């Protein structure tokens, strides 16, 4: 695919924005063996937006995030991030992405502090040790800093995964159900993190099953059902009941 395919960068990015898009997804399809998971998904997201990716189980949300993270190759269609094409320019795109999936992506035999110092070195960050210590405090793990990850609770491990995901200040942060296993305090921490990124003009895409919470944290909502995008709109004009109604309409099942 040639960089001459620059038309996505001029795409309409949503219901009210004229900003240059950071992420463009065009006619995206993904099939595993003979099972279609994503079906001609289209959307564009400007820099600085926070997008809530919503949908029932099996809608294709995780697959879409993994395609954006260049961890899964699409079957058809195009994905662009910051003007780079995801299949051809995967290495360059990964430098600017933070991804936290269902698996935390940390090392169980290392301590909390050792994990963050290791990833700081991997990202080539200056003063990585100081940054690791700062993030330990930021995510409320000071009391667990010298414990091995295998001894942490699910919620504590999720806090560590969030710290890993944001430590290099990614241009695009992708979070797959980041609120899973978080207590009230950690949920407040996640809320603060997302709002800080939005205030700083950073772009975030996250999935959640907590519809009202997801809509409150994002400026836009993209709803997937059965691998298709059935709604793309501003969250201020989207309610949790409307999203549930879309689920019922598209699946024929009560929510």
Task: Give a written overview of the molecule.
It is a single chain. The protein has helices at 61-68, 90-95, 112-122, 128-138, 154-166, 184-199, 211-217, 240-251, and strands at 21-32, 35-46, 50-54, 76-81, 84-85, 97-100, 172-176, 203-207, 220-225, 228-234. Helix 3 crosses helix 4 (128-138). The protein contains eight helices and ten strands. It has two domains: 7-96 and 170-251, Rossmann fold (3-Layer(aba) Sandwich); 107-168, no CATH class. A six-stranded mixed sheet has the order 6-7-8-3-9-10, sandwiched between helices. The model is unreliable at 1-17 (pLDDT under 50). It is 33% helix and 25% strand. The protein has 255 residues and is α/β, with parallel strands linked by helices.
The radius of gyration computed from the alpha-carbon positions, rounded to a whole number of angstroms, is 18 Å
Q: Regarding CATH, which class of the largest domain?
A: Alpha Beta
Low-confidence stretches: 1-17
CATH architecture of the largest domain: 3-Layer(aba) Sandwich
- Provide mean pLDDT, rounded: 90
- Euclidean distance between termini CA atoms: 41 Å
* Helix fraction by DSSP (H/I, runs of at least 4): 25-40%
How many structurally independent domains? Answer: 2
According to CATH, the homologous superfamily of the largest domain is P-loop containing nucleotide triphosphate hydrolases
The SSE string, one letter per element, is EEEHEEHEHHHEHEHEEH
**Structural class estimated from helices and strands:** alpha/beta
So what's the overall shape?
globular
Largest sheet strand order: 6-7-8-3-9-10
What CATH calls the topology of the largest domain is Rossmann fold
Q: Sheet bearing the most strands, described?
A: 6 strands, mixed
Strand content: 25-35%
What is the overall number of helices? Answer: 8
Instruction: Report the count of strand segments.
Output: 10
């Amino acid at each position: 695919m040639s960089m001459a395919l620059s038309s996505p960068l001029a795409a309409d990015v949503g219901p009210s924005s004229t900003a240059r898009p950071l992420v463009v997804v065009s006619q995206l399809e993904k099939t595993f063996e003979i099972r279609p998971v994503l079906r001609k998904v289209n959307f564009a997201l400007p820099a600085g937006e926070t997008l809530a990716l919503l949908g029932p189980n099996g809608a294709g949300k995780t697959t879409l995030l993994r395609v954006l993270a260049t961890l899964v190759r699409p079957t058809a269609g195009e994905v662009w991030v910051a003007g780079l094409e995801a299949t051809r320019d995967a290495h360059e795109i990964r430098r600017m992405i933070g991804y936290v999936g269902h698996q935390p992506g940390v090392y169980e035999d290392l301590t909390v502090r050792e994990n963050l110092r290791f990833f700081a070195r991997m990202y080539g960050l200056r003063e990585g040790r100081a940054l690791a210590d700062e993030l330990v405090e930021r995510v409320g793990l000071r009391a667990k800093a010298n414990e091995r990850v295998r001894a942490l609770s699910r919620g504590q491990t999720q806090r560590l995964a969030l710290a890993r995901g944001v430590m290099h200040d990614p241009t695009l942060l992708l979070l797959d159900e980041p609120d899973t296993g978080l207590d009230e305090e950690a949920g407040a921490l996640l809320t603060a993190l997302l709002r800080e990124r939005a205030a700083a003009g950073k772009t975030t895409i996250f999935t959640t099953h907590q519809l009202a919470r997801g809509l409150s944290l994002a400026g836009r909502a993209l709803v997937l059902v059965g691998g298709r995008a059935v709604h793309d709109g501003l969250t201020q004009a989207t309610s949790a009941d409307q999203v549930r109604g879309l689920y019922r309409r598209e699946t024929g099942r009560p929510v």
